[in-house]
Amino acid sequence: MLRWVLHHLRMIRYYSATRRRTVWTTAMDIALAGAVGMAWPTVWLADQFYIRTDPTVLVGGKVYQDVGGSFRANLAGDELPFELVRDSVFYANFEFSIASERRGWPFVTSHRRPEPSLEMDVFSTGRSKELVDLPSDSPVRAAIAAALFRGGHAEELEVWRGSIPGADHRIATWAANGIIWTLLLAFGGGTCVSMARLGWLFISAGRHADRRQRYRQGLCTACGYDLRGNQFGERCPECGTLTQ
């Protein structure tokens, strides 16, 4: 099987036309190689700096403390039973902020969830809402966590606990973005080389027209020296260019 493949590859190479090596073909090869080399760093840069922030979800509620010192929390719109409220003391209001980011272009390469922030105003202190960082063994934190779980915010609760990573990378879209960026960069590099070659052709055509005009007028095609009195000379006496 391997010999058959190598044989057909040799036959394809034998019958294929040899590619002419010029400055422009070399520039095109460099542009294509650069596109392949720059595609993945570009995908990484897009993941770092092209950020689409989802609307922040705010979850508010109240924390109560009963006569035994235990804490219980409830979300806004989900009031505690009257019996529990009657035997409890209002402790604080809280607001739980949940944010998320989608990164990458054109497809989302990672979904990041910054650590949720918690603001509280404790009734006994009389302070307005301020950011707090409750320790993991805090009973107030446990009460808020239970209220979030009952309210259907289990995924955000896991991020708050650190049980799931804050960033979710998607390998499939990383690969798709790499292919797309390779094609875009290759197209851009090839277009730049083609435009440069077209400009060079215009410049060369203009120079060729100038040389033909000078030749018709009996002037040196290189420097424009008047050669009409130099009929037997083979070179321009001014610049040394061959005239015949």
What is the structure about, briefly put?
The protein is α+β, with helices and mostly antiparallel strands. The protein contains six helices and nine strands; from the N terminus they run ααβββαβββββααβα.
Oligomeric organization of the protein chains: single chain
Shape: elongated
* Number of beta strands: 9
In DSSP terms (H or I, runs of 4 or more residues), the helix count works out at: 6
In terms of structural class, how would the helical and strand content be classed?
alpha+beta
User: How confident overall, as mean pLDDT?
Assistant: 82
Rg value: 38 Å
Low-pLDDT residue intervals, each spanning 5 or more residues: none
Side by side, the strands of the main sheet go: 3-2-4-7-8
Distance between the termini: 62 Å
Our estimate of the beta-strand percent is 15-25%
Order of helices and strands: HHEEEHEEEEEHHEH
The biggest beta sheet is recorded as:
5 strands, antiparallel
Layout of helices and strands, plus pairs?
Blueprint: H1 2-15, H2 23-49, E1 51-53, E2 57-66, E3 71-75, H3 82-86, E4 88-98, E5 101-103, E6 110-112, E7 117-122, E8 130-132, H4 139-150, H5 154-161, E9 167-169, H6 171-216
Antiparallel strand pairs: 1-5, 2-3, 2-4, 4-7, 5-6, 6-9, 7-8
Helix pairs in contact: 2-6
